[in-house]
Amino acid sequence: AFTTIFDIVKLEPFYKEAIEQCRSYNARLCAERSVRLPFLDSQTGVAQNNCYIWMERHHRSPGVSAGQMYTYPARCWRKKRRLHNATDPRLVVSIKACDKSVMF
Which residues form the DPF1-3 N-terminal domain (predicted)? Predict the structure, then answer.
């Protein structure tokens, strides 16, 4: 069936309500998961940490393109800085003097 602009205007409040319900569900889900973090995944052996990829409602802006309800600000992914191997005290190999009385 051909959709008119009037049909879209009538459906927009329902769509916005569905988006809000989805956001609310995702927020509850993230809150429940963050309580259980960090944990070691038994299947993969990888430590799972909290991620910060979810946007809050106050980040939401009106859409800028046709058919776009909302836009969110771009947030670049940044890798955590790691210490250089030579300066990381956990990775420095300590050389101890060998006791000559012990023979192998």
Answer: 12-82
Q: What angle do CA 46, 37, 26 make, to 5 degrees?
A: 110
State if pTM tops 0.70.
no
Spell out the residues 6+ positions from residue 89 whose beta carbon is closer than 8 angstroms to its own. none
Cα-atom radius of gyration of the chain, to the nearest Å?
A: 26
Question: Of 101, 4, 22, 6, which Cα lies nearest the Cα of 60?
Answer: 22
As a residue count, the chain comes to: 104
Structure tokens at 63: 């859409």
